[in-house]
Design a protein that fits this description.
Helices cover 37% and strands 14% of the residues. The chain has 429 residues and is α/β, with parallel strands linked by helices. Strands 1, 2, 3, 4, 5, 6, 7, 8 and 9 form a nine-stranded mixed sheet that branches. Strand 1, helix 2 and strand 2 form a beta-alpha-beta unit. The longest helix has 16 residues. The chain is globular. The two termini are 30 Å apart.
Length: 429
């Protein structure tokens, strides 16, 4: 996700509250004769130039619509939207992170349930009432990122991630990797966002609707200590962070992000826990092929959680209830353009290297980890992006501390469960 690439991208794109298009200096609420003007905000600052060009292409195809695009600075997801709103401007189409849609901006968007593009994707973002409020703009995913060359050598052929359907099979794979000459198969990073926001949210996918599990947790009705999926992921974490398999096992807590990517990129280790965004670091060190596989949760090979990558929208687009009906219709045209028009499809995948949420988009990203996710989407081998259903900042501040203590053996599994219980007590309204 882009917020984890801030250290790489910051400095290259420092955008302030200025529009990406020259038209932004005009009154955004003005309407020329026979035309409607809409403001759009882009939550992915690293594609600001591509976004601006896309709005120009859209306006060429729709001369009755004037679009004024504004892009956020990299690493600052909704700041541009807040600034525009505070200045009295009405943003018609806003791109933001899904967890903010369920919290801070829960009353912002119109109901998009009846839009035709919903039939072309499983990633439409819904509110707790079951209404589609978010257009899935960017799909990302996470799991175990692996070096194909290292695993091919370990298995004596072409490694197929779909063969690892249980924790025991995963452990056997780690043993094969060691037997092939790799001392530490795993380079396990323990940054707060990794161990909490991502790894420690996977268990909520035990229900096809993660919001139901979240509701149980908030209501104090979820038995963490006795829950099989919750425990299962920490049983697997025990392998990933162990002295036997982990490069950093002797001192598991530390800032290992860069070193872990170097280790896997060079083939000194076989895998790490991360997402498709990790390829920016991996490609800098080697031309090796990389893939993404699920994190096994138990030894039931029929458990779908063992066979699916966590994937989903990390940016969604909402249409403002306060926009005029004409502006709302113009925004809907833009969303349909992104799905159905060749130029819109090209903008998302080829120009921006973003994984499309829509089956009808014929394009594929060049990023091999993105290709792994695209293939999983095509095979219905994904489960919801679990981070979207929690407060990521609070998980990083509160839950991460417990998980890190658990990894360093300063807390027991029971202590960790209590940490979750205590946190969710603070969420009960």
């Amino acid at each position: 996700m882009k917020k984890f690439l801030t250290s790489v991208l910051a400095g290259t794109l420092a955008l302030s509250l200025v529009a990406c298009s020259s038209s932004a200096s005009k009154d955004p609420q003005s309407t020329s004769k026979g035309k409607v003007t809409i403001i759009m905000t882009n939550g992915k600052g690293e594609i600001s130039k591509q976004f601006e060009q896309a709005t120009k292409d859209f306006m060429t195809a729709n001369p009755d619509i004037i679009v004024e695009p504004y892009s956020v600075a990299v690493g600052d997801t909704v700041n541009i939207f807040d600034k525009l709103t505070a200045s009295g401007k009405v943003v018609t189409l806003a791109m933001m992170e899904p967890n903010s849609v369920l919290d801070k901006y829960k009353d912002f968007g119109v109901d998009l349930t009846n839009e035709k593009w919903n039939k072309d994707t499983v990633y439409s973002f819904k509110n707790p009432q079951g209404q589609v409020v978010g257009f899935p703009f960017a799909i990302e995913g996470f799991g175990l990122v692996y070096n194909q060359k290292v695993l091919d050598k370990a298995v004596g052929g072409t490694f197929d991630p779909s063969t690892i359907t249980t924790r025991d099979k995963f452990k056997a794979l780690l043993d094969k990797i060691q037997a092939s000459g790799v001392k530490y198969p795993v380079a396990y990073q323990t940054e707060a966002w990794s161990v909490a926001n991502h790894y420690s949210t996977q268990f909520i996918n035990q229900d096809s609707d993660p919001s139901k599990v979240v509701a149980q947790m908030v209501d104090g009705k979820f038995d963490f200590a006795g829950n099989a999926a919750w425990n299962g992921y920490y049983d697997t974490m025990d392998l990933l962070a162990s002295k036997q398999y982990n490069k950093y096992g002797e001192r598991p807590l530390g800032q290992y992000y860069d070193d872990a990517h170097l280790a896997v990129g060079k083939g000194e280790s076989a895998m790490l826990f991360n997402g498709n965004w990790a390829y920016d670091s991996l490609k800098a060190v080697a031309g090796d092929k990389f893939g993404l596989m699920p994190v096994p949760v138990d030894n039931n090979e029929n458990n779908p959680m063992n066979n699916k990558i966590v994937a989903g929208p990390t940016q969604v687009m909402l249409i403002n209830k306060k926009a005029t009906s004409a502006q709302q219709e113009a925004a809907k045209k833009f969303l349909n353009w992104l799905v159905d028009d060749k130029a819109g499809q090209d903008f998302i995948v080829n120009k921006s290297q973003i994984i499309s949420a829509f089956k009808s988009n014929p394009n594929k990203v060049n990023n091999p980890l993105g290709i792994s996710i695209s293939d999983a989407i095509a095979k219905d081998k994904t489960m919801p992006f679990s981070t979207n259903y929690v407060n990521a900042a609070e998980y990083g501040d509160v839950i991460a501390a417990h998980v890190q203590k658990y990894i360093s053996k300063k807390e027991t599994r029971a202590d960790l469960a209590k940490g979750f219980v205590d946190y969710y007590k603070t969420k009960k309204k």
